[in-house]
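Project outcomes to date are best conveyed with an example. Our students and postdoctoral researchers have been running inverse folding experiments weekly, and each run begins with a structure described purely in tokens. The record below, which covers 421 residues, was selected by the lab manager from last quarter's runs and is presented without edits.
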């Protein structure tokens, strides 16, 4: 592309504390969130004639960790294609050469709010179970390609006022092709599975624990395990669920086992005590959904021993969830993820930079007028319920909000959330 022509395609504007240099097709930029991995604004896309979210990655080439995370996020977002996972609409950089390359912008669907707002609402069983169903559909889609999200939390799950839900943020996702141990500092503390806290090998059910914590929070309207640090996090878990069995303790390495065995022993509480009927909505006459079913699902998700925790497939068949079961959603084709050795790859910052630069320009070659070739047009009418285009300010890899643990500054009223389906 002619250098002068390319320069004319971009303009710069201050968005919050950052300067965005974006294509002129994106207008009316407004900040909607920030976090460790990026700054997100809403914008109007004149080409697609819809509001979108634009994320500017924060210092993607600061070090190898940041660079690998940026590459992982980009390649994973390019390969996933499911209605319950945020859609990547465009990728661009204003820089014209690899030598100048320093900024990466991801353009995504714009949603109304993240789950932090929904947690404060009094939902009926239909909405509660439908939101969970959509989470599980999105997770199953990722797991089908061996992708474990690893950082599911309310601020990484976004919704629209019609009860549509999508999962965000793949900067911490990991492909399950290797047996690498997970650091205890990966998943946001409150939603960390016990095997993560204790430094055990990871498996897909780490995401199910997070969903259980989110469901508990939606029912109780407060965080279930609000640990101050990872040691306190473990104590919060065993105080409520009880000290795990000797069978589980024998799976720990010696030093961790010694620590766990030296902690006070707790009997834990029954799930009827932790989640009494009064916390739940009234039983549903329409779908026959009951508090007892939701509580049973919680008891199967919040299991300390991951090998005995309910799987995604089993959860989708649970009576509290399967009223929504649609094979087209549950059994959608898996992501076409080809880089199975991504987690084992190590490169210098410059090598990661080169890989990301190629991904960005490969995207440009595969697109026309901002629409991915071969990808269907957006589903239905785009529902923008406010001038700001969204509510929330906890962002990350996707549309409205994600990475940090900042509080929401809502500009959008979700009302009572629209009807399911």
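After processing, the design step wrote out the following sequence:
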């Amino acid at each position: 592309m002619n250098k002068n022509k390319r320069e004319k395609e971009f303009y710069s504007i201050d968005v919050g504390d950052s300067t965005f240099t974006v294509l002129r097709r994106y207008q009316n930029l407004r900040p909607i969130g920030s976090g460790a991995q990026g700054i997100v604004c809403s914008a109007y896309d004149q080409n697609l004639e819809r509001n979108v979210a634009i994320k500017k990655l924060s210092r993607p080439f600061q070090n190898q960790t940041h660079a690998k995370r940026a590459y992982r996020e980009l390649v994973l977002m390019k390969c996933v294609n499911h209605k319950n996972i945020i859609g990547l609409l465009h990728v661009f950089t204003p820089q014209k050469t690899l030598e100048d390359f320093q900024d990466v912008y991801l353009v995504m669907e714009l949603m109304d709010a993240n789950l932090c707002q929904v947690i404060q609402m009094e939902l009926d069983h239909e909405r509660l179970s439908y939101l969970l169903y959509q989470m599980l559909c999105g997770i199953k889609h990722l797991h089908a390609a061996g992708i474990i999200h690893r950082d599911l939390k309310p601020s990484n799950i976004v919704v629209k006022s019609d009860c549509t839900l999508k999962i965000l943020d793949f900067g911490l996702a990991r492909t399950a092709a290797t047996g690498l141990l997970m650091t205890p500092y990966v998943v946001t503390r409150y939603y960390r599975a016990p095997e993560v806290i204790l430094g055990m090998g990871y498996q897909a059910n780490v995401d199910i624990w997070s969903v259980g914590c989110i469901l508990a929070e939606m029912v109780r309207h407060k965080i279930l395990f609000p640990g101050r640090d990872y040691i306190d996090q473990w104590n919060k878990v065993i105080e409520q669920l009880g000290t795990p069995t000797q069978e589980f303790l024998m799976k720990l390495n010696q030093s961790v086992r010694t620590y766990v065995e030296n902690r006070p022993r707790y009997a834990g509480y029954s799930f009827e005590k932790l989640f009494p009927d009064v916390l739940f909505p009234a039983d549903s006459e329409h779908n026959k959904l009951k508090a007892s079913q939701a509580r049973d699902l919680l008891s199967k998700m919040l299991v300390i021993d991951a090998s005995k925790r309910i799987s995604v497939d089993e959860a989708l068949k649970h009576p509290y969830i399967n009223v929504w079961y649609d094979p087209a959603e549950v059994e959608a084709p898996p992501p076409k993820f080809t880089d199975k050795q991504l987690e084992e790859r190590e490169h210098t910052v410059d090598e990661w930079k080169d890989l990301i630069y190629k991904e960005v320009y490969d995207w440009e070659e595969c697109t026309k007028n901002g629409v991915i070739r071969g990808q269907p047009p957006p589903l239905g009418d785009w529902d923008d319920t406010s001038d700001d285009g969204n509510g929330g300010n906890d962002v990350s890899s996707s549309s409205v909000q994600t990475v940090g643990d900042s509080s929401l500054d809502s500009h959008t009223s979700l009302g009572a959330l629209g009807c399911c389906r």
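The first strand starts at residue 10 and ends at 15. The CA atoms of residues 366 and 372 lie 7 Å apart. The training component of this project remains on track.
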